[in-house]
Amino acid sequence: MSKDAVFEVVGKPQQDRAERVKELSGLGFSWADLDDDPYWIDQAVAMRGDVYAELEQASAKLWRIFDRAARFVIGRHDLYAMIGIPELLWATLDMLEPGAEGLLSRYARFDFAISAEGDIKLLELNADTPTGYVEAAVVTPWQCGQYGLHSPNEAMMEHVAAAWGEERPDTAACVSYGTHLEDSGTIEMLARHSGLPVTCTDCLELWVDEGVLKDGDDRIIRRMFALYPKEWMAIDDGGDALAYAMESGNLELFNPIHAIILQSKGLQALIWGLYELELLFDAEERAVIGRYMLPTYNKAVFDGSFVSKSMFGREGGSVIIYNDEGKQVEKDEAGFDTSRFFPLVYQQRAELAKITLEAGEFHLLTGMFVINGVPCGLLGRAGGLITGNASHFVAIGVRK
Fold this sequence. Notes:
The strands form 5 sheets. Strands 1, 4, 5, 6, 19, 20, 21 and 22 form an 8-stranded mixed beta sheet that branches. A 5-stranded antiparallel beta sheet has the order 14-18-15-16-17. A 4-stranded parallel beta sheet has the order 8-7-12-13, covered by helices on one side. By secondary structure, the protein is of the alpha+beta class. Strand 21 (374-383) and strand 22 form a beta hairpin. The protein has helices at residues 17-27, 49-73, 77-82, 90-95, 133-147, 156-167, 181-194, 239-247, 259-263, 266-276, 283-292; strands spanning 7-10, 33-34, 37-38, 40-47, 107-114, 120-126, 171-174, 199-202, 207-209, 212-214, 220-221, 223-227, 252-254, 296-297, 306-310, 320-322, 328-331, 344-348, 354-357, 360-371, 374-383, 392-398. The mean pLDDT is 95. It is built from 11 helices and 22 strands. 31% of the residues lie in helices and 27% in strands.
């Protein structure tokens, strides 16, 4: 492949996969194989240096734009409703003070479509509970080192330590802790990289006693990092009690509650609408929106191909692709469809570059972690037209 190519696949899968999977498990990545299927690809992808530089700059600028838009929303119930925020959380959002500029969320990930020509388009922002941290912070530098690629991900640990040093959670929680390998491994690695004495626990064992959150051993929790989507508080039993614990000042949750505004894909529709109306954003911000964001609306108003997805869909769940005639051509069947609970957005379709791995031809989704307000980590996912739960993890490094 030409060195001028935006992406270049490097390396060949080694024959001793079982030994390499064992080595990765020792590093804290114990889900390289899931249900006897290879999730981790034993190859790497080299990104052209100038494309990475543009991606990093675009991420920083978009992060500030999303922050400004989210602050525009805070306190406006009409906009909460427009972007699908569950009404249960409105009072909490109004009552609690948002974080400092650029820090409504300290742990987030942009997902980009980068074409074979290097065009960068933002698909969505997971500003609440992104997974893929171990893959990006641990496995990617390990693999890039083997192929002579530069990995900007090496700084991720430092940014986590800085973020958690400010937040100082005493507890990290996920659903099915100890049995769900990915989520359990993610919070354990974050806790390890924080350098703090953090207790990991299962969300399903938590309960609220007169506004005080406790774990299964009746230990009081005051400051908690939760790999638990905040929108589910409106659906799960006990969600109102958890909201009350925050409102009463007995619990600080991380990411903070205002991260749900950034998380909603409805915010992208709001940003695009403000851009078209020439409101809120200055000329520089408008240039960034026009270049890197995709037209996104609350209704399907496109002449060409587009996608629909739930405002709070995750891992590809609820995504449907439509062709130029508006007919469905692809639907994600692997992820959980949340459109029964939350409204949809409609977004112009963007093309992802194709890569050829030993396992076949795939579309490449490029993630960029933003930790403590700093773009700092690439995450590669190789899959079909819709990158969902069935996709593979492939390390992305930068060509030196």
